[in-house]
Each structure stands twice: as structure tokens, then as C-alpha cells.
Amino acid sequence: MSNDPSEQQQRFRHNGRIIVVSGPSGVGKGTLLKKVLQTAELPLELSVSATTRAPRPDEKNGVEYFFLPADEFHWRRENGEFLECFEIFRGGHWYGTLRNTVESRCAAGKWIVLEIDVQGGLSVQRQFPDAVMIFIHPKNVDILKERLAKRGTESQEAAEQRLQQAAQELKLAERYTYHIVNDDLNVAARELMDLLKSIE
Ligand code: ADP
Ligand code: 5GP
């Protein structure tokens, strides 16, 4: 598989686009994207990543993620099936974007939204310099703690790990092109929608 960005872009581009949305865990990426995907009159599709983490009670395989056993994830990784993949939350779980889903949907003219961490986002940017890079910020770090607690899907230890990771991610935010603060949800969703319409 070639790592040459121009060659890769050639294969993907058919009016399709890659849109990377990153931001610390709990900032509201999922909530914001759900709102925008429901209302935006754009050919947006959310990419479904693979992960080795266990599904949360309301999550379904193939909808939020492809939940893979670790051995299958690593087999696929060695087989070059991921566009990018990383171990997130130190010593925790693996997450990755499957190459074939992005490739086929992009070739069909879709704007594929990758809701992925900063390491993954920067890797996609290196491979596809024309990917649209959007970072979602919290109004302040305390809000993240509140939102993770409100969501209630992580143990206290896991939430703590996510907050530590958040500090690292915020340091790399400047590498992204577009920045949105998710304070008021409706305002942030409008900004994201306007931004996406402006790149049409
Ligand atoms: P992420 O996908 O970035 O990890 P989520 O979308 O799961 O974050 O949001 C984390 C929690 O914060 C959820 O309980 C969600 O309802 C809440 N939330 C998201 N955006 C806002 C907002 N603008 N104001 C208040 N609560 C929010
Ligand atoms: P969660 O466990 O809350 O669903 O996601 C945790 C983190 O993993 C989030 O920051 C999310 O953006 C990131 N993530 C989800 N899918 C992928 C992926 O395919 N690749 C990478 N690099 N990160 C991902």
C-alpha cells in the first residue's frame, strides 16, 4: 500500500471528502455530530470505527463501532486494513478507521466524518492533506469532568484517564484548521453546520 499522499488522494477523490472531528472525550463530539447529521443538507456520513473496548449498554455492533476481539483487531491491523489506528487511554483499548469503509463511501461522493482522536486525526492529515480538520473545544476543562460524570458511562478511573488524555489533546489542537467551542449546544451545532456548508 502506497504512503504517497498524492497517490492516496487520487484513489479517494471522486467529490468525496474526509472530515476529521476531534476533541477531548466528553466535549460533546458525538452529541454535536448527531444533531448536524440529522439536519445538514449535505452528503455527510459518519464513519464507523473499530474498537477493542466493550460496548456500552445502549451501543450496537456496526452502529456506534465494530466491536472486535483484540486478536481480530490486530490481525486486521497487520493486514493493513486500517487507515489509521491507535491505542488510546494508555494501556487501554485500540480504536481504528477501517480503510475500505472510507474508501468506498468517499468514492461514492460522500463526505465521510471521522470522529477520531488527535493522533488518528494527524495521521489522516498526513495521508490526506486536503482533509477538513475540525477541533471541538470545551469552554473550560471543568466542564469535561461534569459532562463525563453526567454521561455516566465510565468508571471513575476511566474518566480520570480520559481527563489526562484531554490535556494532551488540547495541546495539539493548534494543528487543526477549524475550531468550535461546544458551550451552548445549539450555537455550536449551527457553527459546525455553517462551517461545513462553507467548504462545499
Ligand atoms: P464525546 O462524544 O465528545 O465523548 P458526548 O457527545 O458523549 O461527548 O457528550 C458527553 C456528555 O455531555 C453527554 O452526556 C452529552 O449529553 C453532554 N453534552 C454534549 N454537549 C453538551 C452541551 N453543549 N451542553 C451540555 N451538555 C452537553
Ligand atoms: P469512546 O470510547 O468514548 O467511544 O471514544 C474514545 C476516543 O476514541 C474518542 O476520543 C474518539 O474520538 C476516539 N476514537 C474513536 N474512533 C476512533 C478511531 O477510529 N481512531 C482513532 N484514532 N480514535 C478513535
Care to describe what's here?
This protein has 200 residues and is of the alpha/beta class. It has a single domain, classed as Rossmann fold (3-Layer(aba) Sandwich), CATH 3.40.50.300. It is 44% helix and 22% strand. The strands form 2 sheets. Strands 2-7-1-8-9 form a 5-stranded parallel beta sheet, sandwiched between helices. A 4-stranded mixed beta sheet has the order 4-3-6-5. It is globular, with a radius of gyration of 16 Å. The two termini are 30 Å apart. The relative contact order is 0.22. Residues 23, 25-31, 147, 150-151, 182, 185, 188 line the site of adenosine-5'-diphosphate (ADP). Guanosine-5'-monophosphate (5GP) binds at residues 25, 49, 53, 84, 86, 88, 95-97, 115-117, 119-120.
| CATH class label | Alpha Beta
User: What ligands does this structure carry?
Assistant: adenosine-5'-diphosphate, guanosine-5'-monophosphate
CATH topology: Rossmann fold
Biggest sheet, in brief?
5 strands, parallel
Order of strands across the biggest sheet?
A: 2-7-1-8-9
Overall mean confidence score, pLDDT:
90
CATH superfamily: P-loop containing nucleotide triphosphate hydrolases
In whole angstroms, the N-to-C terminal distance is 30 Å
Q: Indicate the low-confidence ranges by residue numbers.
A: none
The total count of helices amounts to 8
